């Protein structure tokens, strides 16, 4: 993701004190090197709750080891929002990935927000550039990149996205850029889905209207302006959108349902049929109710493991661009294979 534009006015914050020789300023992180030009240790994390199941540390640490960087990526499992906010305020990290439930808190903590975070109303990546936090949301790009890698074609398709949170919106926008005929946002409450979709459309329209058209992230995808003009956006609830679910070519469940063993699928799975592709963002928690039903119906099914790797590949690219660290200039296919192997995922 080279050169993704920042959107929205940066929040006004008290800037960190100037860095004094021989001392590290609190909250001031970024690419650091010693007097010989060698990179020094940096701290990176995945922030969320729970995160004990996360494969992010083994994936990212494999990349930093290959790149020869003395960076360490660890878990930051905090049970409450105030604790998460305190961690974010300290800014004692080079970069973090953010998972459920703290994407809105990460978005609020940012000084500058890329378009991907603005449209999603949540950040899953924060990079600390000289004390300023830059927010991104790579969930959508990671999801679409993985599914296209696996042979899923969004062009001309009817796509249902379940959920109304930041992950859902990030995926909705990335799916729209992949060229479907329509994208339908579905949640438990139709009025909320309507408001979320309307806000997304309004913000996308404002971006299209006030800046030079933002190009697609991938060749063959749509620009922001093309998305706004060409893709049909709809909304509904699980109860009122049964026909849309049954008629969809691709169904993406971007809700956290399935992280607990007793969680149901978000909609009536009797609507599924063998000609559909179903994707569930959840991974690592056993077979979800949706996964079980999709496989029983003969659907082509994918879980969230590939999306995790896909968004991690995008994140490494962001770190490369912001830090200027040439050692991270690793081809995307090589990065994907390395990180999938480190996580123990069979995504061939």
UniProtKB/TrEMBL annotation:
GO cellular component, one term: cytosol
Superkingdom in the source lineage: Bacteria
Involved pathway(s): Metabolic intermediate biosynthesis; chorismate biosynthesis; chorismate from D-erythrose 4-phosphate and phosphoenolpyruvate: step 4/7
Domain Shikimate dehydrogenase substrate binding N-terminal, first and last residues per copy: 46-125
Biased composition (Basic residues): 10-31
Cross-referenced PANTHER family: BIFUNCTIONAL 3-DEHYDROQUINATE DEHYDRATASE_SHIKIMATE DEHYDROGENASE, CHLOROPLASTIC, SHIKIMATE DEHYDROGENASE
Official protein name in the record: Shikimate dehydrogenase
